[in-house]
Structure prediction request, 595 residues.
Amino acid sequence: MSSIIDVSGLTKSFNEIIAVDNLTFTVIENGVYGFLGQNGAGKSTTIRMLLSLIRPTKGEIRIFGLDLFTHRKEILQRIGAIIEKPDLYKYLTAIENLNLFATMSGLKLKRKQLMDKLEKVGLAERADSKIKTYSQGMKQRLGIAVALVHDPDLIVLDEPMNGLDPQGIADIRQLINHLSKDQGKTVFISSHLLSEMEQVADSLLIIHKGKKIAEGNMIELLNPEQSRIEVETRSAKEFELQLKQTDWTNKIISINGQKITMQMKREEIPSFVQQMAEMKQDIFSIHKKNSLEDYFLSLTSH
Amino acid sequence: MIQLLKIEIFKIFKRPRTYIAFAVIALIIILIQIALKFGGKEYVGLMMSGMGDSFEEIPSKIILNGYLVCFVILNLLLIHIPILVALVSGDSIAGEANMGTLRLLVSKPVSRIQLLIVKFTASVFYTMILLIWVAVLALFLSILLFGVNWLGVPRELQFNVMESDDVLWRYALAFCFAAIGLICVSSLAFMLSVFSDNSIGPIVITVCVIIVFTILTQMQIPFYDETIKPYLFTTHMLGWKGFFYVKAIDGVTEKGSIENFPAIIKSAAILIGYTAVFLGTAFWYFKRKNILS
Prediction:
């Protein structure tokens, strides 16, 4: 697999403030690359530099193997982006907006082709309505249609789930999976919604105060050596007594009401679940505690 | 490039606010025409007072014709139209930043310079349409309502008279000159628009500059006549009047003449120079601008 984005030594300072500090990372094609960081960590500044909206103070950006500053037009031709919220022309209709941005990408589409693209995001029936009458979710879907109108190879999404209801978030998640898994697109996505990111991203880049603090495959980053498991039973005390008769007893960390928390290696989890079933305990839920959120907070909270 | 220009023009004329300027101009011109239709005699009397006895015998019906009405309208309007031009030019880039669409435009495979050229050309197109609207209402509607005759243009202690077949070409050139002046104002508002992320700022600043410069232009203070006035673009925007100042030999005006054509050319050149400076600054800054909106 070849790299789609190669960033090295990227730095951006606004007067005295260093927003992005010597950032280096690589995005490999055909996957979902999650970009995490707290508010003000430098995510949006980095994304804006990738889209040539902001000039870096230092560093190099290569996309599709080309230097962004010397091959800007060729590169942007192959990128579709939503930067923060999808602001479009409120006084124009959906089809007018889509046609306008298709033309800016060098396409000349007929009404039927535009309608097909709106159909894919479920907006064909409202194609001739002005955007000012749209809900936030509809605007987001139109923003996606605009970003994908020229069939880009790389899709850059900056906080695409902001302001969406649960259904809207689920739709975006489904779309990201579809673009990545079915269409072989590369998706570079930043989001505050860590649980959502955990569900869609294959790789992660985490930045804090402008600097990279972690990068790699999601599974590797989430430390499989030390998985924490929370089990909810009818009676944690009763369950503990049963566990004490096995080697699992050493793995217990805490007991709290109906919940018992244990720590074990990732590969031990299946045999533990199997043994629980044999114990005939009433198990209401089993929850893996070392989520992306736990990992993210452990890196950024100090 | 043509496709992009079509998009920009489409966007301008899809906004309801674009038509405010057309409505305002139509309202003012029609109000002036109504006033002159019903109170023209008094207006002409006032205008001719102090011009000597020989003019008092000419019936006001002859003096008050479509050509004079157009001259009166242009005299009143050409200083205010720039304010309406600023509404669109000042909104050109800052309005996109304000709406949040600028980041989308700049992240498209179009160079920033190309984007600015297209945006400014669209603003100029709007300005020209506005000027044509003024010409249609001020000249052609006035001709329709008041008819044509010779044109008398009052000046300080002078009254320049042009025969009716010596007038239309002067209006054509005057409108061309006005176009240069309005493009200059448009480029000022456009430049300010590039510096701002909110369209109110560029529009208000442009309007303030026009008001302050116009006041300075019209102040009769000898000190300013030599030190400031020659450098104000508003001074040179009045150059269109030069097409109606004719040469006179022994009190008889020379048909087809212009009293000081080099002065008109100089004013046009200064306005073009200002436009180049405003646009150059806009392009220089926008190429380097960080799009944070």
